[in-house]
Amino acid sequence: MSDIKKLQDDMHMLKITQMTIVEHLSKDDNFMQLLLAGYLASDKLRNSFTEYINENGDDDTKVFMQQMNETALEFDKESKEDE
Questions:
Q1: What is the DSSP string of 2-30?
Q2: I want to staple 57 with a disulfide (CB 3.0 to 4.6 A). Which of 14, 30, 36, 53 is the partner?
Q3: What are the structural domain ranges in the chain?
Q4: Distance CA 71, CA 42 (A)
């Protein structure tokens, strides 16, 4: 059990470090755009975020997520055609 506690402590430390870095760098719009693009490039994260937005988001955010999902589908389709 002590190994699990150590892993939890390590994960907590990494979370604090990551959030501090993101908070500092998020003052740069280019960084935030790249970070958001990276998250939305992951089907699993994008789908989870889409579900959250559909339940809790405003109309503008819902439209934005719909556009992001359509773009991801087009990208997937194009990349499969190139194979």
A1: HHHHHHHHHHHHHHHHHHHHHHHHTTSHH
A2: 53
A3: 1-41, 42-83
A4: 13
Q: Are 40 and 72 within 8 A, CB to CB?
A: yes
Distance CA 47, CA 34 (A): 18
Whole-angstrom Cα distance, residue 34 to residue 60?
A: 21
Kindly state the tokens that stand for 26: 């998020």
Residue 13 scores a pLDDT above 90:
yes
74: tokens are: 């087009």
User: To which residue do tokens 């955010």 refer?
Assistant: 61
3-state secondary structure 61-77: HHHHHHHHHHHHHHHHH
CA gyration radius, the chain: 17
